[in-house]
## 1
Amino acid sequence: MAGRGLLSRIAAKDITRTRTENDVESIIEHLRGLLNTRQGECPAAMDFGVVDFTDLMHTFPEAIQTLQRSIRATILQYEPRLKNVIVQHVRDDEVLVLKFQITAQLASKTAKGAVRLETQLRAGGQISVR
């Protein structure tokens, strides 16, 4: 009968919640590295990372859609803990900043739920993930 009491069930929920939070933090850290790597920089996987935005600047504003598709494709390819990934451009008045919202579902059996993250591409090419 161990594990069936109220305290055991409460403890199990706390462990699951903590595990989910840890999974999400791990995913965010991985996405930071993934989205700040440009395609062609990783010799073992030349498509690892996103397209280099500096190569797209001359096609602005169409470059936004290209970068949006690249972010989504990269996440689908290299972050298996996420599924049903949607990447949307978020309009902002801030000059020289592109914002994207990433919405996805956790694909793990132990961690369930939705994740919503915000990314910002600044003039220097760095992408932040929150």
Note: The helical segments are 6-35, 53-56, 62-78.
## 2
Amino acid sequence: MKIKCNIKIIIFTVVLLIFVSSCYAEYNGQIKSSDEMPIEWNSSECWTVLNLEQNKEILKIQNLNGDGDKNITEDNLTYEVRLYEVNFTAPGADIYYIIPWFGKEYVAIEDNPGKMSSIIFQQKENDKKRLTENQLWDLDNGYSLKFQSSPDGSTAFVTLYRNESELISGVANYANNMTFIGKENIAGIDGAIFFVTHIDSVFGSVNDRTAIIKHTWLLDICNVTEIEEGNAFGSLKVQNISGNSINLSNFEEINLIANDKKYFTDDWYFETFSSGNSWLIRPGKDNTEEESADNNESKSIEDLNISLMDDLDESEANFSTTFKEFTDENLNNSNLETNGKDVYVEEIQNVASLPGFTSIVSIFALISITFMRKRQ
């Protein structure tokens, strides 16, 4: 009876693992086969969690050399990013350009792909801020906004502060659609737009004015990244900056080892899975600080799992070992096709390397064990 129960537990957990592996690999790219060259990943295939504009960030392996371990010779790994336009939501404001850069999105200052900065504050299209006259509105990173109104409410005087010092001020009135657009010299570019806000309405008594503010958009002009031709990022070097794109390629050979990770920047890597002459490859990147914080929170869950496992009888407490032996034996004995279609087995083999995987496996293992015990 106990043997049958253990088999049921194993089967049930394998099904759960397949489901978890398909949902959880959000910071790894799609697995692709080396049988079809070149291998290319667009934005959505690299980092599905980011929802980047498709085909605006392209990573490509042109060719792989070597009979055993593989290597990417010079200029055979390329990385290209392209600008795409986004409409301002504020009336009277036109467009700005976004550029993906190593898995993140930045604003290309005045359409210049080599000069980029982050949006540090942005109201959604339907967001509204109710602000009393002369009240400071904290916009984050030391920026704050204040408005004053003319007696009839037809003109608003807008002031933007940085660390309590006035950065820029201007007027929003009917002539400019009640939208103030702030411009500044940023990284040597004169008249670059970095701030937009719209006064939707002003009401109240002369001594107690209140404004409804919408469509506020603010660029961090104190932290501008400038990219130049020849700059190196790990094994990649900037080869060309054109009017709407940046192109990089590897300036040194990148050696890939079977069933291992190889970094080609500080936090980007290729992960390889080999089966005979065929290789499966996917790009990956290390967790951000925010992701690491999420993983740290999962430690308390793992501790809880350990204490709960102690309450199980000996055969069930050894479940994880039994499952590992079961999967290792069956996967190693399988003659599987690796033509790019049957890659789900490789996902199971390598899903244990995903962040927080231990916690998820433990939770589902406990669920399956509890379920089967109740069925006995």
Note: The chain has two domains: 2-80+255-375, 119-222.
## 3
Amino acid sequence: MGIKSKLENVDKIWELLEMCYYGHIEQVKRLLEEGVDINGIGNNGMSPLDAAKNGENDDIVGFLLSMGAKEGSNSTDELI
């Protein structure tokens, strides 16, 4: 993966984390449709599911779980 591609991936993961935390479900759906990893881990060590839980957004937690988000999982070998 090139540097530019990796940086774009970091931005998308971070955007997904923010949308999950702040409860913007339509943006969460859009990002997942664009292929952002539902189990990706941000440089803060959080997954989208963690962010939704921390933001107390039960609708997004339920949605992520229904889409295959895994509790305590890290689908990448390194933090992004």
Note: The domain at 3-66 is CATH 1.25.40.20 (Serine Threonine Protein Phosphatase 5, Tetratricopeptide repeat).
## 4
Amino acid sequence: MDNEQLQKLTEDISLQDFGKPFRHRAFFNDRLKTTGGRYMLSSHNIELNRKYLIEHGRSELVGIIKHELCHYHLHLEGKGYKHRDKDFRDLLQKVGAPRFCTPLQTKKTQKKTYMYRCAACGQQYIKKRAMNPERYACGKCRGKIKRIF
């Protein structure tokens, strides 16, 4: 699905479920990492995360679009458009939009760890940050520290 198809889908959902036209832009923003989508208050555009379409399919994307359209229409009407507002929660329930989207299943990359060992006594040190072993000595025996990996 490209941005033109997404725009058409958003306009169709807006007319069918809300009975109001969507007059702004809806597009994929590949920089979104943890959120399904966002409604931009200043421009009234809707940005959506393409990863949700890939991982969870079209039905999840439709739910996210409905959620963002709730923000959109309520904001333009001057009603409560925030998650905590009663108007927003009522409209979510009316159109069958989810309050939160399903979490993504993509694995987060593990942070690199550095392992050091004392040459004299064999004491191991695991660090999250690299260090210069020339500047440090073993805390147990004062021996030289060598980097393993």
Note: The longest strand covers residues 114-118.
